């Protein structure tokens, strides 16, 4: 029950009905007897600047998770960005400090790595393929660089976006070998789909069938798509004997990171 003393967090995007964060956060708040609630906010683009300005004076709001399509739009409207968020030019969480300052970070990548660690994957010295150079793919790529990955291949039909991300990574991680082409998947320790391909009942996979046939059983194959739980890519990987990581696993793993940044949960929530 939300009362006058309830502290609030929000999740901002459009559309918003499909997001899992309110369910995950509110269940955790209830189970741990915290007088905090998460509100879904479906906001139009033209109202976004005024909404962000309103957050500064919203005294019982602790922070806001940011989802598509506003991760890039919101970043320049904030008062401060973390180093990684500034490098990526986007945010997926905002903390409202007690003086009203709004601080942004981007934690998709750290959530991904937390989920991957549960599958015994450690990036240091490894090789990875990330399909998708958009917001989630960029965040995962950056987190892999932070964690000491040896070689990263970025694949996306939007070549300008690939080159932009390659430039960000080269500046942040001079020792990371970043490539944009590959012939097969046999050398990769990690393959990640960071695109919407596979969502719903389309049956699509984000890679050509010929490279998929070269998957090795030691490879962790991950997908950021949350529905279906087992995407066509993950089903294919299972048939090759690979370990898999689902989109809901990443979303759930990230919850503690987001909550800790906003000051409403511990990191291990």
List keywords for this structure.
2 domains, Rossmann fold, 10 helices, single chain, 269 residues, six-stranded parallel beta sheet, globular, six-stranded mixed beta sheet, alpha/beta
Describe the structure.
It contains ten helices and twelve strands. Helix 5 crosses helix 10. Helices cover 35% and strands 20% of the residues. The chain folds into two domains: 7-106, Leucine Dehydrogenase, chain A, domain 1 (Rossmann fold); 109-249, NAD(P)-binding Rossmann-like Domain (Rossmann fold). It has helices at residues 21-31, 48-55, 71-74, 83-88, 108-117, 135-146, 159-172, 209-212, 232-239, 247-262, and strands at 7-13, 36-42, 61-66, 80-81, 93-96, 102-105, 127-131, 151-155, 177-179, 190-193, 220-223, 243-245. The two termini are 21 Å apart. It is globular and about 60 Å long. The strands form two sheets. It has a six-stranded mixed beta sheet. The mean pLDDT is 95. A hairpin with a 5-residue loop joins strand 5 (93-96) and strand 6. With 269 residues, the protein is α/β, with parallel strands linked by helices.
Q: Report the sheet with the most strands, covering strand number, pairing sense and barrel closure.
A: 6 strands, mixed
* Radius of gyration, in angstroms, nearest whole number: 19 Å
Q: What is the architecture of the largest domain at the second tier of CATH?
A: 3-Layer(aba) Sandwich
CATH homologous superfamily annotation of the largest domain: NAD(P)-binding Rossmann-like Domain
Order of helices and strands: EHEHEHEHEEHEHEHEEHEHEH
- Give the DSSP E fraction (strand runs of 2 or more residues): 15-25%
Q: Trace the largest sheet across and list its strands.
A: 2-1-3-5-6-4
Q: Per CATH, what is the topology of the largest domain?
A: Rossmann fold
As an assembly, this protein is single chain
- Fraction of residues in helices? 25-40%
